[in-house]
Amino acid sequence: MTDAQDHKKKMKEVQAKHRAKVSEAQDPGRGLVLVHTGKGKGKSSSAFGVVIRALGWGQKVAVVQFIKGKWKTGERRFFEEHGGVTWHTMGEGFTWDTQDRDRDIAAAKSAFGKACDLMASGDYDLVVLDEINIALRYEYLSADEVVAGLEGRSDKTGVILTGRDAPQALCDYADLVTEMTEVKHPFQAGIKAQRGVDF
């Protein structure tokens, strides 16, 4: 058997296994919950890639930002200019900037209240809760209340939760969990955040 024949045979086997698996898969009849976590870069970036995919299918999308405050980001500028996304920036900036736990808790609770309204409304196919895991890490919100909010979402609504240190209870509840691993980062070499790459 030639290398080409051997390769073709292996790929036919892979194809048959994949088709069998696809034929057994079922639509859950509800929006999925995705968690993007880990110490590596790309959690929010990946979520916004899914936003673009949803918009490509004519779906309705909302974003609630928990931490980033009024900081202008490329994605926010893009969607403000091009539309298609209901955008709520409700954080007051990085936690080390506010230095006021009570204020941070109030901001997180307000943002999550807005998120619950959006998720339950049935108006959205996708809701992104950007950096909510940071609010969970600092215990501005509890994992139990976030899972309860997810439970109350409309069947049509999928949700993406981003930020490092997602709690185990949230990961257990989610349909998909992706952990970004940092291998190398320019900040460690003293390079400041770059417009269009980092924000």
Query: What is the number of helical segments per DSSP (H or I, 4+ residues)?
Result: 8
Summed up, the domain count is 1
Q: Which term fits the overall shape?
A: globular
| N-to-C SSE string, H for helix and E for strand | HEHEHEHHEHHEHE
Q: Which class do the helix and strand fractions yield?
A: alpha/beta
User: Helix fraction?
Assistant: 40-55%
The CATH architecture assignment turns out to be 3-Layer(aba) Sandwich
DSSP strand content: 5-15%
- Largest sheet report: 6 strands, parallel
Strand order within the widest beta sheet: 3-2-4-5-1-6
According to CATH, what is the class? Alpha Beta
**Over all CA atoms, what is the radius of gyration?**
20 Å
Walk me through this protein's architecture.
The chain is α/β, with parallel strands linked by helices and 199 residues long. It has a single domain, classed as P-loop containing nucleotide triphosphate hydrolases (Rossmann fold). 46% of the residues lie in helices and 15% in strands. It contains eight helices and six strands; from the N terminus they run αβαβαβααβααβαβ. Strands 3-2-4-5-1-6 form a six-stranded parallel beta sheet, sandwiched between helices. Strand 2 (61-65), helix 3 (74-82) and strand 3 (85-89) form a beta-alpha-beta unit. The model has no long low-confidence stretch (mean pLDDT 91).
Secondary structure layout plus pairing:
Blueprint: H1 3-24, E1 33-37, H2 43-56, E2 61-65, H3 74-82, E3 85-89, H4 95-98, H5 101-121, E4 126-130, H6 132-137, H7 143-151, E5 158-162, H8 168-173, E6 176-179
Parallel strand pairs: 1-5, 1-6, 2-3, 2-4, 4-5
